């Protein structure tokens, strides 16, 4: 009788080391995701457990919580969702990667972080217009030399302009000409992300235990 041997499961902890520091949210190793590039504070790592992304030097949970609190908008906290469909589609072109980005949150990462101060996620919901803008810009990033050029022009996000003048001129023209076609694609993409629970921008309300 033939016997099929099960493939051993390697725990995430096995990858821990100097190159894979612990995730500030859950303690699992952070693995490389995006190499260092112009406009970012350093290379980007991501957690395979809670989904948190970290740009540049990895800090502790307190630093991540301070960054999270800076995103407060009234009673809620708005995050660009690293687990969103737009991020999966865009990769390094995702609009959530910008010069001010340090921690790239998911709802699960937020849940684990705020538990450290006896809070829970009371409610989470997507922000349709903000999510559409992020998805739209992510699509435009795939055809421009710079990053987040359109939203940077609208002053709603920090942009990374292309290095050379002729590249910047092409980016301006491409953003103008392709704005409507990109919007036509972004709308169903963001709707699909919403149906899958993976909207591009999520609003989160917290409460104490």
How would you explain this protein's 3D organization?
The chain is an alpha+beta fold. The protein has one domain (16-208). It has seven helices and eight strands. The strands form two sheets. Strands 1-2-3-6 form a four-stranded antiparallel beta sheet. It has a four-stranded antiparallel beta sheet with strand order 4-5-8-7. The longest helix has 17 residues, at 179-195. The radius of gyration is 19 Å and the shape is globular.
List the topology elements.
Elements: E1 30-34, E2 44-47, E3 53-55, H1 61-69, E4 72-73, E5 76-80, H2 85-90, E6 103-104, H3 107-114, E7 119-126, H4 128-141, H5 149-153, H6 165-177, H7 179-195, E8 201-208
Antiparallel strand pairs: 1-2, 2-3, 3-6, 4-5, 5-8, 7-8
The tally of beta strands, per DSSP, is 8
N-to-C series of helices and strands: EEEHEEHEHEHHHHE
Helix content, binned percent: 25-40%
Number of domains: 1
Could you tell me the radius of gyration in angstroms? 19 Å
Strands across the major sheet, in which order?
1-2-3-6
Residue runs with pLDDT of under 50 for 5 or more positions? 6-10
User: With helices defined by DSSP (H or I, 4 residues minimum), what is the helix count?
Assistant: 7
Which whole number gives the mean pLDDT?
91
Structural class: alpha+beta
Largest sheet geometry:
4 strands, antiparallel
Describe the global form.
globular
